[in-house]
Design goal:
The chain is mostly helical. The chain has one domain. It is 71% helix and 0% strand. The protein contains two helices and no strands. Helix 1 runs antiparallel to helix 2. The protein starts with 14 loop residues before the first helix and ends in a 7-residue tail after the last helix.
Length: 82
């Protein structure tokens, strides 16, 4: 909302870049967690970290699909997309 209480118009021009940033960040966290899994002897912590990385894999799949959709929408000038 702006200062007058009106909603801001939907600006999707940088969505591809924002999604790519999130993908890169998630991959970085995935790799760091993978290293922690290798280093820890605590079995519960290993299980928890493995589950966390499984959730990251699912999130990455969704983000990759979303970035494809956004790239297509951008190519078409966002006509017919909301």
């Amino acid at each position: 909302m702006d200062k007058k209480g009106k909603p801001k118009p939907d600006d999707r021009r940088d969505n591809v870049e924002k999604i790519q940033y999130n993908i890169d960040h998630t991959i970085s966290n995935y790799r760091a967690t993978k290293d922690l899994i290798e280093e820890t002897d605590d079995e519960k912590e290993k299980r928890d970290l493995i589950q966390k990385n499984k959730r990251r894999e699912q999130a990455l799949s969704g983000m990759r699909e979303e970035i494809r959709d956004e790239a297509i929408a951008r190519e078409k000038g966002y006509k017919g997309y909301k």
